[in-house]
Amino acid sequence: MSVLPILIWPDTRLQQRCAPVRSEQLDDLITDMFDTMYAAKGRGLAAPQVGVLKRLFVMDCTWKDGTPSPMVMINPTIMATENDPATAEEGCLSIPGVLVKVTRPKAVTLQWTAREGDIHMADFDGFEALCIQHEFDHLNGVVTFDHLDPQTRAHLETEFLEAAK
Ligand code: ZN
Description:
two-stranded antiparallel ribbon, 7 strands, single chain
């Protein structure tokens, strides 16, 4: 078990489409991803954020409220989204200190493979739906900045890169 270094934008590994998980042994990686996410005080972490370009992410939307609910989504597919959009400020462990207003569908239906290998499907709304879509984006090389209009994006990117100097 160990805390892994989290890649920081604009690392090019955060901008690549990840490959499906086939039959890799993922137990150590998943344990390390949870350790890394909790250590960074995050509620979601995608494999590419620790440099593994595979389609999986971990999340726990409730641990900060004292009731952990760790979930692992391997090879997730968004089967359906609700038409109704919601806008919220999103942080990202790979873009520390920056909150970006992102508009997304309010609810999603997700299919995924669990840690034990069985396939699940469920509906999610609220913060879980937001978190799933944010982490799912990472698997396609998409970060919060990619949701912005060019002007807002340029402004926030410059601000982030200046602050990181
Ligand atoms: Zn993120």
